[in-house]
Amino acid sequence: MLKKTLDKNTVPVLDVRNLEAVYQMDEGVVRAVNDVSFTIAEGETMGLVGETGAGKTTTAFSILRLLPERTGRIPRGEIFYKGENLLKKTPDEMRIIRGSCISMIFQDPMTALNPILTVGDQILESLEIHNIENKTKKELESRVDELMTLVGISPARKNEYPHQFSGGMKQRIVIAIALACEPLLLIADEPTTALDVTIQAQVLVLMEELKGRLGTSMIMISHDLGVVAKTCDSVAIMYAGEIVEYGTAKDIFEGKVHHPYTLGLFQAIPRLDEDTLRLRPINGLMPDPSDLPSGCKFHPRCVDCMDECRDGKPYPYNQNGHRILCNLLQREKRV
Known about the structure:
CATH class of the domain at 14-89 and 223-334: Alpha Beta
CATH architecture of the domain at 14-89 and 223-334: 3-Layer(aba) Sandwich
Distance between the termini: 53 Å
Largest sheet: 8 strands, mixed
CATH superfamily of the domain at 14-89 and 223-334: P-loop containing nucleotide triphosphate hydrolases
Structural class: alpha/beta
């Protein structure tokens, strides 16, 4: 089993290199993730941003080796957790790693919990599976009480069922399950999407407090740039299975150079300081992953598209670690 200790000066918590993930369907091959690379250091939160269908959740499932057995596969790439390649682990080794070393908050709290088990039993299950210190049942039950208190729910409610909780409280239970074994890496897949704005704020504050207390690294998957700006240290913008822009939160939110897709996402955000009644959406739709366009995958929707964008793969622009996959920036740089 992997140790949880980590020397932050030598090995990142997560190092994803040239990852590809596909789904083999009757209609053909769906290329959901294409040549994705990023690293996450100890205590760092990285935002993974993009429209629905960009490949964010498939990237997360690939890290945890949770792609569907019959249809999903990873034909290329490496995923290093603390220097060890997860793609070379056996199924039994991955079962130990999931929950103990890497945990995930799944997208919808309304369906993430088992309706026929009490919330206390669902938290306890994770503790029992990873009970490497052979704690007694009483000690594990005490840990359940601690976790419920930690996420702001009275332990007196641990014998209640999911339908007896509100959406926000269900999300807190899901967070308690994910953090039960104090993992070094937490993947949060749109943890606030199904919640109203007041509960969203409470959940984000809770996650930040727990992250600071436990020293956990995090991948925050979201299409909400406001959430990303509030919580993340670095940001990866995904489009059609590729990371088209990657940098620090300052690069993304304060920088002057961006991928046209990133600019489109910013322009689609409602602003109170502009006298306009209409948003400025990105024209067109995300391409079909089973029939991706040639060249730059964004070129059919890009207002600045050039001839060279339709043919070859765009050349990466890199300035002090701020990486952008766009031919337009290379032309400006040459000029």
